[in-house]
Specification:
eight-stranded mixed β-sheet; 33% helix; 24% strand
Length: 242
């Protein structure tokens, strides 16, 4: 890592998520919400990929021949489906415990994934067609440096996809007041003051030299469960191009 490059890893955040590593793949455990979110997130990613690289929308491997980077991968809940979509995937996380579990699980699934411990600072000189970082930017020490690092790793004409909670009364209620008391989210997972509004995240992405092409809300109702929506009050996904 270059001494002049800001370190975006927050050690306390890395330790918090590392402590959850052994339970990450348990759909009823501490990462239960991520298990429920995954199908919706993957639908958004697939739609964004098909729009960015038009091809066969029925293909099971739309990412064949593409290099993909998953930043803040945890134990690989999203990483493994990306590999199954045909991508050559590199995935990084600040918690060594998460990477150890991710490697073991991928090996058991017969998936070849390049898992690494570290932050975006470790990727100097590497280039990826698709860069993904979901529910991560709200946990880093320096959001601007983090987004700049993601953008630097994106190949020309590449696609970047982010997601993060919005900083609204709705997100505080849903993710902290309810989510961290009776909703199964481990206490201390979120700091509401570190949440970014869509305008704030868009400004960081544009400041890193990318063009934002889409912002879509992610919400929850008892009848629909997690779903994509125009309402960004709780959480949202953002797509951008280089």
């Amino acid at each position: 890592m270059n001494a002049s490059t800001p370190d975006t890893i927050d050690p306390a955040e890395a330790a918090h998520f590392g402590a959850m590593a052994a339970d990450w793949w348990n759909p009823k455990g501490s990462s239960a919400m991520l298990h429920k979110l995954n199908p919706v997130r993957l639908r958004y990613i697939r739609d964004a990929v098909d729009a960015h690289w038009p091809g066969d929308p029925t293909s099971f491997k739309p990412l064949a021949g593409r290099r993909v980077l998953d930043v803040g991968c945890g134990a690989g809940l999203l990483t493994e489906p990306l590999a199954r979509l045909g991508a050559a995937v590199t995935a990084i996380d600040a918690a060594p415990e998460n990477i150890a579990v991710a490697r073991s699980h991928a090996e058991g699934q017969g998936l070849a994934i390049d898992y690494r411990v570290g932050g975006v600072e470790t990727l100097a000189g590497e280039s990826f067609d698709l860069v993904i970082s979901l529910e991560v930017v709200e946990h880093v020490a320096d959001p601007a440096a983090f987004i700049a690092g993601l953008a630097a790793a994106l190949a020309p004409s590449g696609l970047m996809i982010l997601s993060t909670p919005n900083r609204t009364p709705m997100s505080r209620l849903a993710l902290i007041t309810v989510g961290e008391s009776v909703g199964g989210i481990p206490k201390g997972t979120h700091d509401w003051h570190k949440f970014l509004t869509p305008d704030e995240l868009k400004a960081l992405v544009q400041g890193a030299g990318l063009t934002v092409s889409d912002i879509t809300g992610l919400s929850f109702t008892p009848l629909q469960g997690f779903h994509l929506t125009d309402n960004t009050a709780m959480d949202y996904l953002l797509a951008a191009q280089k």
